Amino acid sequence: TDPGVIRNFCIIAHIDHGKSTLADRMLQLTGAVQAREMKAQYLDRMDIERERGITIKSQAVRMPWEHEGSTYAFHMIDTPGHVDFSYEVSRSLAACEGALLLVDAAQGIEAQTLANLYLAMEHELTIIPVLNKIDLPAAMPDKYAEELAHLIGGDPQDVLRVSGKTGEGVEELLDRIVEEIPAPEGDADAPARAMIFDSVYDTYRGVVTFVRVVDGSLGHRERIKMMSTGATHELLEIGVSSPEPEPTKGLGVGEVGYLITGVKDVRQSKVGDTVTSQRKPAEEIIGGYDEPRPMVFSGLFPIDGSDFPVLREALEKLQLNDAALSFEPETSAALGFGFRVGFLGLLHLEITRQRLESEYNLDLISTAPNVIYHVTAEDGSTHVVTNPSEFPDGKTAEIREPVVDATVIVPSEFIGAVMELCQARRGSMEGMDYLSEDRVELRYRLPLAEIVFDFFDQLKSRTRGYASLNWQSEGDQASDLVKVEILLQGDKVDAFSAITHRDHAYAYGVKMASRLKDLIPRQQFEVPIQAAIGSRIIARENIRAIRKDVLSKCYGGDISRKRKLLEKQKEGKKRMKMVGTVEVPQEAFISALSSN
Ligand code: GDP
Ligand code: MG
Fold first, then answer.
1. Numbered residues of the known binding site for GTP
2. What gap in Å lies between CA 539 and CA 533, rounded to an integer?
3. What atom in ligand 1 is closest to the CA of residue 23?
4. How many CB atoms lie within 10 A of CB 239?
5. Nearest CA to ligand 1 atom 11
6. pLDDT tens, position by position, 337-384
């Protein structure tokens, strides 16, 4: 295809602003998908995406469009919207020349939109502002057209108004794409270079790698080389998605399509890597390459210990399609055998857990998530801590924790509520701007550990659901952190240890001790529950002794009832875990850990 008729673009939108619906309309209007094959949210293929209505993995679709007598080839690249996947977002943007900035005409700009817009501007993409859902009675297109024009410059008159639902304005949008988004440029005679912006595992076809060709071309049956590792593979199939896979003879400058090589693991075909041809390899990788870095760690333990091998196999399977997922075996005195799993963020954790439970039928306990700490002990030794159990004993010289720059957008009446929350979470304010008269963008630097738990929930509840949040990593900072341990009758319960700021340690200790007091049944002897920093006890509760005699509840001689009770008690015992000499029901661990 002549690069002159190619247009590569993505859609930037906050969740629920209508990206998938607009994509459906475009597929229909361009004829890429016939009406009878159309199903809502055609591109959100993974079940979990449909369930949650979010796009996790990007997809690239080719669509034809006639404009003033010429046929254009559009490649629409669907980017993941969530901050956990920001590296994948940045790679998808790098594969485009333009972006549709899609904003719900009843909601206005949200934090997610803004963050991705800034990324698109960094990549120097042409931005086409579009207000969606103009069919809604609550739509305020004039107000938000101003807001958009104010944000990206230009005239409010030029902001397109469409409805992905009714199709109104969508043809005009397709024409604007031809007119405003530049055609790709590249050197057709240079050695081939194609950037991987997505890579998905397919049970039947193995890994399917999505690429954007920058220079040269790639052909069917050619041997290709991954530039970050030097590994070579034969191209078994090359083609475009329109949106169903269609094999072609090759891909040239500016084209977006897929490659199949028979590799079985997405880690051999990594997002961000550059593909070249082995025969005539390129020298320089495109735009640098970043390994995915897990930000949040949590222990995952099967509730039924015999499920451990199933959990291992399930994690290995998920990893085939998720280069960012990392794990290693972990043993906990309280929870048994499991894995320490690294995630990009909390959504990634939640999705992974949900998939393990629904697709592999596992019941899991997950320990409280924590971030990575860099600890320098007093003797000068350094420790990378992804698990409280790795925290060095004794005095520490310095502890560094990851920090993020967060952006919150709220109606101005909630400024005070947001500031209060951010301050309680050790945030420092970096700036504040009015987007319009009544909507504000607040910028804070916050420790990552303070936002990975319930920050977003808190933010939503304090702003009646109006706030939107986005953040990006900004390195790390030294902080006054301590490890709080929970002891049952003098024995440490590893699953409940946590690393917290010194100012929050007391509250954590008191909360866990009193929660466990309610959850652990009385034993034959008194059980002290203590929270400690090192050897210093900061909180204490007592479970009083009781002589448990279930039979005393049955007055008289109902033998069958007695037997039942005894059996029930035996069953209950099976689900007990011994911590030192204390019997703790499995349920206690689950509830204590789940209600953070
Ligand atoms: P995404 O999260 O950005 O992909 O958003 P979706 O396309 O999934 O849309 C979110 C919700 O908004 C769905 O309930 C859609 O039916 C609805 N929606 C999308 N576009 C429109 C529109 O133009 N008009 C109306 N009234 N609703 C829309
Ligand atoms: Mg969607």
1. 16-21, 132-135
2. 10
3. 7
4. 20
5. 16
6. 999 999 988 778 888 988 898 889 998 888 888 899 999 999 999 999
By the 10 Å C-beta count (0-12 exposed, 13-18 middle, 19+ buried), 284 is classed as exposed
Q: Residue 146 C-alpha to ligand 2 middle, in angstroms?
A: 25
CB distance 265 to ligand 1 below 6 Å: no
Sheet holding 160-161, edge to edge: 59-67, 70-78, 6-13, 98-104, 126-132, 160-161
Rg (CA), the chain: 28
| Exposure b/e, 520-541, CB count within 10 A at least 16 = b | beebeeebebbbbbeeeebbeb
Contact 592, 516 (CB under 8 A): yes
- Distance between CA atoms of 55 and 43, rounded to whole angstroms? 9
Chain-centroid distance, C-alpha 543:
40
In which band, very low, low, confident or very high, does the pLDDT at 49 lie, cut at 50, 70 and 90? very low
pTM above 0.80, yes or no: no
Question: Predicted confidence band at 575 (pLDDT cuts at 50, 70, 90)?
Answer: low
Nearest to 350 by CA among 494, 454, 267, 447: 454
Determine the atom of ligand 1 nearest the C-alpha atom of 136: 26
- Pull the structure tokens for residue 21: 């619906």
- Gap from CA of 175 to ligand 2 centroid (Å): 23
How far is the first Cα of the chain from the last one, in angstroms, to the nearest whole number? 55
Q: Tell me the ipTM for this assembly.
A: 0.99
Q: 131 alpha carbon to ligand 1 midpoint, in Å?
A: 12
List the beta bridge partners of residue 29: none
Alpha-carbon span 326 to 319, nearest angstrom? 8
Say yes or no: CB of residue 310 within 6 Å of ligand 1.
Answer: no
- Give the pLDDT confidence of 137-180 residue by residue, as tens digits: 999 999 999 999 988 888 999 999 999 999 999 999 999 999 99
Burial of residue 328, with CB atoms counted within 10 A of its CB: 0-12 exposed, 13-18 middle, 19 or more buried:
exposed
pLDDT band at 56; cut points 50, 70, 90: very low
Residues sharing a CB contact under 8 Å with residue 369, sequence separation 6 or more, in sequence order: 296, 297, 298, 343, 346, 349, 452, 453
Residue 179's pLDDT is what? 97
CB atoms within 10 A of CB 281: 15
- CA 307 from centre of chain: 26
Ligand 1 lined by 165 (C-beta under 6 Å):
yes
Q: Is 418 helix (H, G, I), strand (E, B) or coil?
A: helix
Given a contact cutoff of 8 angstroms between Cβ atoms, the answer to whether 214 and 286 are in contact is: yes
Between 395 and 581, name the one with better pLDDT.
395
For residue 16, how far is its CA from the centre of ligand 1 (angstroms)?
Answer: 6
Q: Which of 21, 38, 42, 103 to mutate to test the pocket of ligand 1 (most atoms within 8 A of CB)?
A: 21
Give residue for tokens 């998908």.
33
Amino acid (one-letter) located at 104: D
